[in-house]
Amino acid sequence: MSTKLMIVDDSNIIRSKISRTLSRHDLEVVATACNGEEAVSLFMSTRPDVVTMDLTMPMMDGLECIRALRRLNDKVRILVVSALADKSTAIQALMEGAQGFLCKPFTEDELTDSIDELLRG
Amino acid sequence: MDEHELHVFIDIVSQYFSRQTGREPEIGTPYLGEPAALPVHDLTGVIGISGVRKGCVYFTAPKDMLRNLLLQGGEMDVSDDNLSDMAGEIANTISGNARKHFGGDFLISVPVVVAGCPDSIQMPRTVKAYILPLRWHKHEAVLVVSLQ
Fold this sequence. Notes:
The complex is a heterodimer.
Chain A (H helix, E strand, L loop, with lengths): L2 E6 L3 H12 L3 E7 L2 H11 L3 E4 L8 H11 L4 E6 L4 H10 L3 E4 L4 H13 L1
Parallel strand pairs in A: 1-2, 1-3, 3-4, 4-5
Helix pairs in contact in A: 2-3
Chain B lengths: L2 H19 L4 E2 L3 E3 L9 E9 L3 E7 L1 H10 L7 H18 L1 H4 L3 E3 L3 E4 L13 E8 L2 E9 L1
Antiparallel strand pairs in B: 1-7, 2-7, 3-4, 3-5, 3-6, 4-8, 7-8
Helix pairs in contact in B: 1-3, 2-3
């Protein structure tokens, strides 16, 4: 059974890039969301195993969304994919419950490596 | 803004193009622009800056360049929506990466993308705007940084 993935990013081209790359990597994209609110509403109906999460988004940002997803499910694995390159943001995301942090711009290899690391736990 | 901070943005822009396309852009000589007469191309991704610094960062490029960047990244949908998204994402990535230098209190907005009309871009009138011209694959674009 393939791993179920939800992609959360306000950029269509980033959602598309992540989907293209990870679909080839035996992950099934079960949901895509362009902000945190949409992600929370899709989460319970699609029950993803892994979430890639942008941070700077309208409506509900990534950190708030991570907190909300953690309240719904403490087992989901979350990889933050963000342009915010300062250490304090990465630390804050990890403290909120993300397990990994990938800085934009990223290559396909960096994305698959980060997902592999996330799944290895 | 000082010379060192300008170099931060030059390095980020160079790294962005190198990492995404495998080809470094040629960065032209930066210059100061008048807030009322700043360069714009077809699509402009604008990021508002608040927190420890206040101002604006924008990336403006012709559609041909954005189309080429999408195709280089493996994106076959080169619709106008995706071209706008590309302009916004470049501005967002450059501004977000700048937090490595400016710190976590360098707050960035979500991108706003403007087509053509320069009147829609709100720049601080009293702050110098630094213009970084760049050329990539024969396409010319500009990064504008205006920070108090």
